[in-house]
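Take a look at the protein record below with the fold in mind.
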Amino acid sequence: MAVGDFAGYRSSSPGFNEGSVDLYKRTDSGWVLHQRLFSPTPEHGGLFGRRVSLDAENGQLLVGVPKWSSFINNPGSPYFLSGRAYLFELNNGQWSHELTLRPTVPHHALNLGIDAGTFRHQNFGHSVSIKGDRMAIGASSALTLPPSTAPVVVGGLVYTYVRVGGQWTIDQIIEPPQIEWGSTWGSFGARLDLDRERLVVSGYSGTQGKVFLFHQSPSGWRLEAHFGSPLPGAGFVNRQFGYSVSLDGNRLAVGAPSWSCSNSTCPSLIAIFEKQGQSWVRTQVLDEINSQPGNGRGVFGTHIKLKGDHLLASLPGHLQSGIARGQVHLYKYQTGLGFQLQTIYRHRERPISAFNSLLGMEVDADFERGIMIAGDPNYHYSEPASPNGNGSAFGAVLMFDLSLGQQLTCPGSQNSAGGTGHLSVQGSLAASDSRLTLHASQLPPGKLALFLYGQSGLPYPIPSGGELCIRGGIFRMLPAGLTGDWGERILDVDLSVPREAQNLMPGTTWAFQVWHRDQFPGSPSTTGTTNAVEVLMQ
């Protein structure tokens, strides 16, 4: 997991917010910080980590730095605040800098006083995407079209790269398609997403926003389709159609959160497009009136993630008790009905102050493993003295389990970590997939935790503390292990083990639970338990 902190401070340079990217790795004892990356050419305010794209399967990380300038004290430099991107690769267990990328096409002369003939202020790295041997980088402020060639000034470029024989080279530089829209738009390349042979690019500034879909052909990337907002009335301001895009095969999701709309009743929406035959067709619109008490706006669709039959959509402005806390909604596709809301995810705890949080400013998921993450850059929490000299900090990433099975009547016992232990079942219940994971969390750190399974039953107390909801033969899943620093333990169930292969057969029902060591000061209890989850194997 990669997390950008584009306003963060390096501990060795107090007051110098150059940004960083944290790489986390999942282990048996939970998620641990694996490595922290800084810009290879550090500077103040470059926004290193403002955009990240992680291709974990191929050990590649692309980091956008849209405000980079190696001449920070020389605004006259042709590369002043032009932007950069850095490619990191995983070698022998460590991430290292492999390649530096920057814009190569200067601004055209537009008589607008915007650095014509230079690379300044191009926002190269405003969007990044890497998948296998291809990557794409947006330079959303590059001015490319003279006014005489279009009814309005549009701008932005997308640079695509391909790796051949281990070497990355520029594949193509894509300019905004010259299409008459009847309303202004711009910032081509502000958002993009790669998926196999397709590339989706949006420009969401202006009054509407547009989205373009390109297909890889022997002659390069060609325009396959283009989309505008499904809302009527071209003059309606600041819908920001294309503020988020997510592409998966023959299905595309486009968000229009109306962040900048001055009217609290501006609709926010996510449009779903599907390829049917030779054409792309809009098949569904998920929308929200975007108004709450006190003129609050949920800004539905600020960030989205589409994969197969699952869709994540964020509402970072959603109010809770009159204060923005944010939400993330999970949708699942149902034949004949389209995407239907399944689950709503929220903060578990309030921040230490009344600041608005922004849960869901970015979201991502691994639906096969059953994991979802949501960023909240405004979450306010206390910490020991931070590098910039204060005793609090902002920013958090929340991880949610996309849980399987049914919760039984064992709620989990109170433990010395201050909460109740929690167990979730993730991945797939299909025995043939061999992709079943048990995730224990909210446990005391550094304590022995053992996964158990058996037949479900009424809860009964354990003399040493906690209660079980398992009856009959109780099976212990090996190995036992200690919880990590954050009170987690994760077990990938090995269905090739003879006992588990014989027990966890398709059509059988089992209950899982975790027993753990613990010790309350002054309490005779020395153990505790999590909730119990019942599953039907398939």
